[in-house]
Amino acid sequence: MNFRLLISSLLFLFFSNQIFGQADSLILNNNNVLVGEIKDMDRGVLTMETPYSDSDFKVEWNGVKEIYTVTSFLITLSDGSRYNGSLETVESGKIRINDERETIIISHNELVFLKSVDDGFWSQLYASVDFGYSITRANNLKQLSLRSNIGYLAERWSADMSVNSVNSTQDSVEAIRRQDGNFTYRQFLPKDWFLIGQLSFLSNTEQKLDLRTNGKLGIGKYVIHTNTTYWAFQGGASFNNENFSSEAADKQSLEGFFGTELNLYDVGDLSLLTKVIAYPGITEKGRWRADFVFDTKYDLPLDFYIKLGFTLNYDNQPVVGASATDYVFQTTFGWEL
To answer: What structural domains does the chain harbor?
Structure first.
């Protein structure tokens, strides 16, 4: 039985390669063979495009026994090491990475991220957009939510930009507006350390913020980075510029920042993200701010998803007439690239 399976697998690989050219291949724990082009592996799920199916195959990484690629990948290991090259299983539970600079042997569970680079720029781009809309007859209440994200991942750095917006109107009540956005750059260092630079913007009516512009420079580290979880800490300094919609004087201040981010993504089709950042004042003694984010995402077919998000901003010294706390709860439907 095993001999017939081996012959069938070899013949399948041979004819697939003859028909479709060079191909990557997987042997699963049940000895099934998949041949095609591996697109990526992230959060414990590997995606493969095959010539014999209209839709991509998604396979849990712990269900893969062997992997052989001609495709080159951006590769990340659980200790934060990063490589650029192809992979092949050399023995049970061991994979060889053929990097441009060196060749190394790793264990199967050390591999936490793959991203194909054979397709050039577009293969390293990622994006998502989701919308939410509600209307209520009472007081003619209307609310529109928008969340969007676009980013680029290279071997040693990443950059991403996001924009979130909530606008609510109803009869006899002043319109409610909340908008935020940020641009984030990360430079990856050895041992899962990273440098971070971020420029963020926030505008909301609850705290009478016409515009808050915040620039951050700091350093962070992933203390857990696996196929099921990542947990990171970061800290540094930030410059805060605030313009208010009230008669309050505009402010400029220097702050510190420190925080943590936890992402759980081995919960079936669910993923959970929580992040909290605190900003103790340096030039404004006694002032401190905090930002909190909690997102739950449920994956649907064809890269669609449903997301529930909660965001909170706190300031212990708000301007006169403004609230110390502003928060928003969003339910949205989206699609990701």
So the answer is: 2-118 (no CATH), 125-336 (2.40.160.40)
